[in-house]
Amino acid sequence: MTRREWKQLVAVLAIVATVLLALRESASSRVEIPVGRSEVVFWHFWGGKDRPVVEEICRRFNHSQQEFFVRPIAMPGNNLDLKFFLSVAGGDPPDLLNQDDPIVADWAHRGALIPLDELAPRAEIESLQQWLFPAAREIGSSGGRMFALCNGLDIRALYYNADILKQHALSPPQTIAELDHAARVIAPPGDRSLTRYGYLPDPRRLWSWGIVFGGEFYDTPTGRVTADSPPVVAALDWMASYSRDYGADRVARFRKGDQALPGAAFPLLEGRYAMLMDGQWRVSEIAAVQEAARQRGEAVPQYGVVPLPAPPDGRENAGWVNGNFFVVPRGAKNPRGAWAFMKFWSGFDGHEDEAARACTAGGWIPASQKVVEQPRFQQYLERYPMFRTFVELAASPNQRPTPAVPGAQFFQDEVIRAAEDAIYRSVPAEQALTAATRRITTRLEAERNAPQ
Question: What's the DSSP call for residue 329?
Fold first, then answer.
């Protein structure tokens, strides 16, 4: 056995041990199920400060009715998909699982998921499709059927330090040209001593900028990968223009410095950028920094957020979206209970206030406008006004998730790899994306033809 094969075996055995440990914990931590109720075994990935929020949602559901009893089991860490399939192979899958990776099409293609139209009547699913935001509906769908129910969305927008913009007599950018102008006024490309940049593109964000520039990464009717289409190429070439102006090596080193920040610190709050794309979860961090300054009697730093600026022929209120969603595996012992809990948490079928309560506790964007309209959530928006921008973006049809195809994670990673080549290694944008498109196409064809 080679060293590589030995390492692979050790990794697999470690994962198996993790699953067995989780299953043993699952058995040993069983609480007494109230008489007359059936148990719903629920796997989720939340840990840290979010885990108590999840457990409280389960507690409220259990208290709300007399038919089912949800038992949450935290499964944090990597390789959740392998843990899941090992549980399926072992004949003991959970009844319900919450995920946030682009796995719906993969798992549906393998026959591992129960489609929602087998959990509920067609009329109920049609009502659900109308109830959800377009992006939430798309996240849960594959091949024209729904296999997952989204319970929270993650949206990206452009944060800015209002104090820095004011110092330079700049307004929050509304267009790509305004973003470029502001970035270069704040950090002139010829300055070799920069410790702060106005803006620097992140290779991961090509998924957003490609959509903003008017592109699509996949053509569903034809099944063709279009990651090298002219708008996506234009988006990546624009992103790479910052490396051409500032130097690819300098940009790469500065980005590496972001990763060296303690914990998951927000680089905008650390003063490294005047403008930065990120998600709605940063709103509470900004509010905490402002409150701390207020408590110390210091000047309160001012921040804001705007939708991603678009070029003249691009899309407004656009970007890449992902989110958390529920799936029910084949072999689940209690799919009815799983469906009931899914609806309770997401807010569907009259549970909108419960969903608003969950979203305000976790800082999550609801999957439906009906939840947004709840008084409890409106009060949250009053408390965190910057959050409103993300909620408004969630309703836009121009928010697009990773294409729902088998091999979606590989697809997502390869697009990012192409962006890294263009931004950090000076590979021409079209060349990088053409190569990525070939690799993705080959992989997707293999996935489609693989035995289920």
Answer: B
Match domain 156-320+405-449 to its CATH number in 3.30.70.3400, 3.40.250.10, 3.40.50.970, 3.40.190.10: 3.40.190.10
**Rg over CA atoms, the chain:** 23
Q: Which two tokens stand for residue 187?
A: 């950090």
* Residue 384: per-residue pLDDT: 97
Per-residue pLDDT of 309-346, as tens digits, reads 999 999 999 999 999 999 999 999 999 999 999 999 99
Residues 420, 252 contacting (CB under 8 angstroms): no
Helix 429-449 crosses helix 408-424 at what angle (to 10 degrees)? Answer: 170
Q: Is 250 exposed, middle or buried (0-12, 13-18, 19+ CB in 10 A)?
A: middle
- The answer to whether 133 and 322 have CB atoms below 8 angstroms apart is no
pLDDT digits (tens, 9 = 90+) for 7-65: 444 445 445 544 554 554 444 455 688 888 999 999 998 888 889 999 999 999 999 99
Residue 116 CA to residue 131 CA, distance in Å, equals 15
Q: How far apart are CA 372 and CA 366, in angstroms?
A: 6
